[in-house]
């Protein structure tokens, strides 16, 4: 069975290019980036994709957009622009997002265990099978890991909950794109994907939620100790 991993959206790629531009140019706090028109030309993208990328970068406090003045680098956020992460600041950022993730995804896990269909169970089994295969082959599992958690929101069957999650999904992706620059950081959560799914499959929401919380506890502990 062929399965597709979701491709990155244009604004995600633009965000990465802006971060790379800041690093390459050695820009410091308070320094100004090129104008929107110049960035559009530089990256060869549409204004809507660029503005969406800037909104995300503002949300994680990498840049500050001041109307009528321009786009500025800010040092109150998550990154050091030499390409190294400011560990303490990124820890705070990830822990804040983790709190939100616990609340939203915890509810999604509960609902998924109560509402999951036979068809969605088979989709999640296939997802886990690919996860296992990629893990055994030593391949990057970040994308399939992210897809597994997307299945939980789908199985929950609550469009509003899914919509709220989608609104912060770019921030949540920080957990799947190598926090602190280390993609393998959360490998120790791998076994809990299986036990979490078993709870959902058996419609045992208490077991599923318990396994989900174990996963979140490990992530939190790992962040705090890194």
From TrEMBL:
Record carries keyword DNA-binding:
yes
For this protein, the record's InterPro entries field holds: GntR_C (IPR011711), TF_FadR/GntR_C (IPR008920), Tscrpt_reg_HTH_GntR (IPR000524), WH-like_DNA-bd_sf (IPR036388), WH_DNA-bd_sf (IPR036390)
SMART domains reported in the protein's UniProt record = FCD, HTH_GNTR
Record Gene3D superfamilies: GntR ligand-binding domain-like (1.20.120.530), Winged helix-like DNA-binding domain superfamily/Winged helix DNA-binding domain (1.10.10.10)
Keyword terms = DNA-binding, Transcription, Transcription regulation
List the Gene Ontology MF annotations in alphabetical order: DNA binding; DNA-binding transcription factor activity
Q: Which residues cross the membrane?
A: none
Give start and end of each HTH gntR-type domain.
Answer: 8-76
* Pfam families xrefs: FCD, GntR
Would the keyword DNA-binding turn up in this protein's UniProt record?
yes
PANTHER family in UniProt: TRANSCRIPTIONAL REGULATOR, GNTR FAMILY, UXU OPERON TRANSCRIPTIONAL REGULATOR
Indicate what this protein is called per its UniProt record: DNA-binding transcriptional regulator, FadR family
Q: What organism is listed for this UniProt entry? A: Paenibacillus catalpae
């Amino acid at each position: 069975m062929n399965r597709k991993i979701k491709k990155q959206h244009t604004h995600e790629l633009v965000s990465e290019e802006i971060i790379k531009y800041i690093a390459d140019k050695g820009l410091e706090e308070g320094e100004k980036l090129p104008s929107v028109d110049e960035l559009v030309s530089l990256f060869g993208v549409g204004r809507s994709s660029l503005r969406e990328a800037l909104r995300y970068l503002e949300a994680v406090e990498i840049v500050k957009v001041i109307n009528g003045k321009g786009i500025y680098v800010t040092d109150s956020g998550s990154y050091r622009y030499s390409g190294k992460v400011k560990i303490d600041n990124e820890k705070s950022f990830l822990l804040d997002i983790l709190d939100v993730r616990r609340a939203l995804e915890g509810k999604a896990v509960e609902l998924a265990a109560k509402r999951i269909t036979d068809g969605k169970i088979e989709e999640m089994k296939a997802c886990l099978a690919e996860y296992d295969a990629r893990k055994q082959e030593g391949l990057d599992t970040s994308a399939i890991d992210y897809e597994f958690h997307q299945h939980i929101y789908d199985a929950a069957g609550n469009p509003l909950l899914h919509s709220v999650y989608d609104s912060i999904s770019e921030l949540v992706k920080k957990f799947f794109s190598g926090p602190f620059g280390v993609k393998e950081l959360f490998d120790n959560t791998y076994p809990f994907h299986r036990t979490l799914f078993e709870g959902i499959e058996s419609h045992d929401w208490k077991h599923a939620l318990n396994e989900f919380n174990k996963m979140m506890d490990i992530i939190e502990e790992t962040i705090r100790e890194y």
